[in-house]
Amino acid sequence: MTPRIALVHERLTEFGGSEAVVAEFMRTWPAAPVYAPIADQAGIRALHAAAGDGHAVHDTWLSRIGARSHAPLLPLVPGAMRRLPLRGRFDAVVVSHHAFATQAVFATDAPVIAYVHSPARWAWDRAFRAQEAGGRAGQLALAGLGALARHHERRAAPRLAHVIANSHAVARRVRDWWGLPATVINPPVRVDSYFPDPAVRREDFYLFAGRLVPYKRADLAIRAAKAAGVRLIVAGDGRFRPQLESIAGPETTFLGAVPDVMLLDLFRRCRALLMPGIEDFGIVPVEAMACGAPVLAVGAGGALDTVRPGSTGEYVPGGTDDEVTRALAKLLGEHDPARYDPAVVRAHAVSFAPAAFRARIATVVTGVLDASGG
Hints:
By secondary structure, this protein is α/β, with parallel strands linked by helices. The protein folds into two domains: 5-188 and 353-372, Rossmann fold (3-Layer(aba) Sandwich), CATH 3.40.50.2000; 191-350, 3-Layer(aba) Sandwich (Rossmann fold), CATH 3.40.50.2000. 41% of the residues lie in helices and 14% in strands. It is built from 15 helices and 15 strands. It has helices at 17-28, 41-51, 77-82, 121-124, 126-133, 136-156, 168-178, 218-228, 241-247, 260-269, 283-290, 303-306, 321-334, 342-350, 354-372; strands spanning 5-9, 11-12, 34-35, 38-39, 57-58, 92-97, 112-116, 162-165, 183-184, 206-209, 232-235, 252-256, 273-275, 295-298, 313-316. The strands form four sheets. A seven-stranded parallel beta sheet has the order 5-3-1-6-7-8-9. α12 (303-306) links the parallel β14 and β15. 46% of the residues are buried.
């Protein structure tokens, strides 16, 4: 008998890396309904465009409050998760967790498998929270929400049947913050959409690509490019952009948000992608490697799962901002893209393809069902 699986995600208001994971869940279990306390039509359409239209998507009353931003609704999400209509209807529930999705354990008697993008870093990591909050009022609000998230994560963790982390760095957070072991399954990357073009040559610039928010640390890439005297192109937009433009020199060009076709072209032409922030995993570096571009990253977080020094890129050690900037500037001054074989770089990226992800996630869930007698 085919097991009855339900999928739970925290919100469907945009399409990013975590939504791509949910789309692959949907491909793995084609009959599984998706539950999200907050959703809008644009988010649902984007999910169906990625996974197909055969899945029912259920939101809750939170979607109909009409808030201009989802942020004010976050304190209400745990309660909405606990009231999802799951009990007695499914053999297993697979949740996609950032902060509150594990509350679904209180809405079902079936085993719950949590795919953890990260325990809420803004709840557990005080330095990360201070970096993201932006001002005294923001820090106080985020501190209060962080205390709520920690409380709910602690309550739910012992009830989880299995925890899957999206990187070894996240698995360590699950161990340290929740006291639980975690299986590591890296998220899927659309490597079929990113590939080299033999007719395109590498050019004399480095690339930063991603949202311009504090934790991505584009400021370190900009400072390092200025110190090394190399060209840097910044592809992306966000609330941190004015501050970044204020520290940039003439060697740095801001493109703003770019369409996928332009990003593909940048990956193919850059000398290397810079990854100065500490990511939970990092989809963009794998996309760049799928185009044959090496990645220069801080040797921490998700980069430890994706970058192979000497083969697909290089690490610089972590440290203070000045230390990272100096190390990255030194690496930029010495970097020779000819050292990296684009075919080897791409072959490594292909190991993160969606099919491999689906096979691994299905194996874990089947094991949990077998162990529970489901």
